[in-house]
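Revision sheet: C-alpha cells.
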Amino acid sequence: MTPARLGTIAARYSHALRAVQFTATHGNLANFPKECCHHASYLFAIHILKCHNEEATVVFAKRGEASERRHVWVSLRGTIVDLTSGQFTDESLPEYYVGSATGWYSTWAVIASETLPMTAERADRLLNGFYGEPFRLIEGFLATTPLEVGKWMLL
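Predicted:
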C-alpha cells in the first residue's frame, strides 16, 4: 500500500472516529481524540488487516524521565499513522498524521515490549472482546458514508 493510499484510508477512518456516537461503554473513544490513542490505534490496525489485508504494527512509546507521558500510533511499512495527534493542541499537530518518524515522533522512545504486530489471531481476540462493537460501528459508518475531499467523494 502506498503512503498516499494509506493517507486516504486514515482520513476516512479519522472522520469515522469523530462522527460515530460512542458511549461510555466504549471507553475513552467517547472523548476522541483525547486519551484514546490506544483504542484508535488498535481499531485502525484491525481495519487495515481485515479490510486491506495488510499487517500493521501498534507502536507504544513514552517520553520523559519517568515515562509520565505515553502515546500509541500505527506503523505500516515505516509510515506512521497517528489518528489522535490532534489531541496535542499545545504542540500544534494536525488532526491526524500520516508520514515518517521524524520531528515530533522522533522525541518518543518506542517501548519494544509493548509494540506488537496486528496479526489475525490478535485481531480476532480483540474483536471478540472490547473492540467488537466499536469496530462494527465504525465499519458500518465507513460502508454508508462517503468522505468529501475537495470535489471528490471517497468510498
